[in-house]
Amino acid sequence: MTVTYTTKRTASDLGPRRLHADNINPNVKEAKYAVRGELAVKAEEYRVRLAKGDKSLPFDSVIFANIGNPQQLDQKPITFFRQVLSLLENPALLEKPEALRSSFGYNQDALDRAKKLLADIQSVGAYSHSQGAPLIRESVAKFIEERDGFSANPQDLYLCAGASSGVSTLLNVICHAPHAGVLVPIPQYPLYTATLSLLNAQCVPYYLEEERAWGTDVEAIRQSLARAKAEGTDVRAIVVINPGNPTGASLSPEDIKSVLDIAAAEKLVVIADEVYQTNVFVGEFTSFKKRLRQLQQEVPGKYDHVELASLHSVSKGMVGECGHRGGYFELVGFDPLVAAQIYKFVSIMLCPPVIGQCLVELMVNPPKKGEPSYELYEKEYNGIRDGLHKRALALYEAFKQMEGVECQEPQGAMYLFPSITMPPKAIEAAAAEGRQPDEFYCLRLLDATGVCVVPGSGFGQKENTLHFRTTFLAPGTDWVERIVKFHAEFMAKYQ
Amino acid sequence: MTVTYTTKRTASDLGPRRLHADNINPNVKEAKYAVRGELAVKAEEYRVRLAKGDKSLPFDSVIFANIGNPQQLDQKPITFFRQVLSLLENPALLEKPEALRSSFGYNQDALDRAKKLLADIQSVGAYSHSQGAPLIRESVAKFIEERDGFSANPQDLYLCAGASSGVSTLLNVICHAPHAGVLVPIPQYPLYTATLSLLNAQCVPYYLEEERAWGTDVEAIRQSLARAKAEGTDVRAIVVINPGNPTGASLSPEDIKSVLDIAAAEKLVVIADEVYQTNVFVGEFTSFKKRLRQLQQEVPGKYDHVELASLHSVSKGMVGECGHRGGYFELVGFDPLVAAQIYKFVSIMLCPPVIGQCLVELMVNPPKKGEPSYELYEKEYNGIRDGLHKRALALYEAFKQMEGVECQEPQGAMYLFPSITMPPKAIEAAAAEGRQPDEFYCLRLLDATGVCVVPGSGFGQKENTLHFRTTFLAPGTDWVERIVKFHAEFMAKYQ
């Protein structure tokens, strides 16, 4: 059946429906999320056309370099993880261990792990504790202790449906009024600005230093904070993404201390987004938790009241299991009454996906040396890590060759964020279409090559600078060559 | 290391931390969610004590009758579903079909289904389309078409992490200001009031008719609506839970028409929570979508502009896979520009758990007659359905015997919601503890028997009435006898 509606609208009569674009929640309207916006939608349309045999496009594949989605591209899941998950989904498999071993190569440690998890969660089809299954939180606490050398308490851990869900929870609790503000690095992963928009709270931007490999500039933070305070904003928290998204920057212990110094002095809650903690090529990852505990020992008193929430995820690193929506956050130094409110908040959505929780357990507690599944795990893990680094360098080399493109050396995460200098004529052409110049560039790139990247405007950037973010997940070098060729033609056309 | 904080607080100095219970988001503080509140936390503590060998409690097991969590209790997952999910988690299993069949009893249709899903989603570890994988939305559309006899469009479907997440999305978009209101049945599942609190919007309660098996009273809706409008509330939507939670009531086609009449006349968006659509003992389930399409055919024009969002879930019914967090909602009659905002909103959280999406596919597209897995599926499905009905009736019979307890005949869902008449002395004892009388009753019940139910005050109830909600999921009758015995002693004590 077909139902038709009048499309004519006047100011006083906005059509027969109750909801229209002009009367829904303005905070939802205000929110922006470019990673899955117009470009991503168009790329998906191209993919479907190609899959249906459309030969009219000037490319034969779509490269989704717009989003850190490893298993959509080349990355294979870690065998041990998926073996355990298959046993959790169908525990009947555990009844024939011999057949599992001989036909499918499952080792005893996979079977043991599945049994241990099932003893705690009962079934992956049952709701768990709203903070996450107790055994799994114990494993996460042990992982944090081993990583940092400082104790962690399962009661302070909250498993969540990917770090995004954890960030949303934290910002929901922190932002109390329209003048609540949160310091957010620019460029940033747009989850932060989008969530602050939804909460009708203030994003207080602080700019990262591109010329210093996107380092964190303490002076920039201080200035932003002072400006926001002067404008009446109640700045309550600071977000740090380390390693950085979209920048790929990796913070030094000294940089982390600078942020903690400001947090301690200004009473800012620190939200440390550490989902790329294993994607580090240069130097070594230091967690905010570890640095905070060190400082608390070194300078008794000064940092005792710092509140820190740090996040991790199964989506990134060498795990790359985004589709499973698993993650956790740890609260350090929070008032127990505030933690109780966080518990209530997460309990309204009942619990995070239980199979995703189990994947968190596997990530933080992988096979150990000497265990039967260790060798293959190690091989797969290192293979993924090395492949990522190699592709990052290849892409970096390509960018170095491109006219008007500048790129910081890859340090970590899954992204490069090169700047582009566009000819004035290209900027005029963009304006004629009512678009940001970098958005215009990325659209032309997609139309010409099938390569989907995200314009810098989707993450924020200093005025009069232009960038785009690309992942280095896609296999091969063909797509990099497509970008190089497009770029040369684009520059020539608008010269 | 131990960090200590001063606990002394004055009005002007609320401690050294930035966040405390008095300055976080007041909407979070305001939200109430009794299903996982104090009673549930205490029950979990008892469970842990028993598991650790504590013999000091007057019961030897905790019965979680507070929450519809079938697989925490007796219910086994459907074999076919879990076989397919195990293959999705470890596609390497598909390489040895003979071993799968001979050692583990997988039929060819399970293998075929896994391959078909993998061809669409690539990996359960990859992000999907934010609305859900295209193939899965096609299956859901077919299911709705077969259920209702009216067409459904995959583009109007949004997979979500359980219906709770879908409800949150819808209310986020609908509620535009503090004077936005949503009609919610009382008693209700507290997700609705909690989410409205979080959004700082108005819950406009309408009372269900207990004496008419918790039927929907059109007059009550009209009165609530008129009162709210007079108070300046912009009432935008009406929630209907059918079959009812916590009431178990099942709406007749006539009742549904009454709601749609009001929605059409008053321009209210209808949110139809239909997660218990297969848990119907009395009569037959009619969806709001079907009834709306029928009315649109019968009375051209009158219902054309009605906006309906209906929700379904893998958590309930005979599937009972709550831990997987799978569900969907369908939009009918929504402005495409509003739908675009809903898409953007869900895209901020990237996508629902992909394995949960696959479970949605299995739920709506189970093995068909003639297919190898059909017979076992049918047997398991009917076994669960009959078991639920049997337990509902047994519990109902027990309540009929109890002094001061009245209960409507079970019609559907997973709950009974009996009313209790408490002696004045018991009500005084509750007041002395600063508790609602029904909360007092449920706490005493838990302390004495280990049976955890939820007080009626957690769902809302008419003034001067008291209730509790219990699921009828727990196996056996021992726990019912515990309730009967406790109740007799409670009544005697406070006589």
UniProtKB/TrEMBL annotation, chains A, B:
Q: Which GO terms describe its biological process?
A: L-alanine catabolic process
Record's protein name: Glutamate pyruvate transaminase
* Aminotransferase class I/classII large domain span: 110-477
Record's InterPro entries? Answer: ALAT1/2-like (IPR045088), Aminotransferase_I/II_large (IPR004839), PyrdxlP-dep_Trfase (IPR015424), PyrdxlP-dep_Trfase_major (IPR015421), PyrdxlP-dep_Trfase_small (IPR015422)
Give the GO molecular function terms: pyridoxal phosphate binding; transaminase activity
Q: Do the record's keywords include Glycoprotein?
A: no
List required co-factors.
pyridoxal 5'-phosphate
**Superkingdom, natural source:** Eukaryota
Q: How does this chain assemble?
A: Homodimer.
What's the family? Answer: Belongs to the class-I pyridoxal-phosphate-dependent aminotransferase family. Alanine aminotransferase subfamily.
Enumerate the UniProt keywords alphabetically: Aminotransferase, Pyridoxal phosphate, Transferase
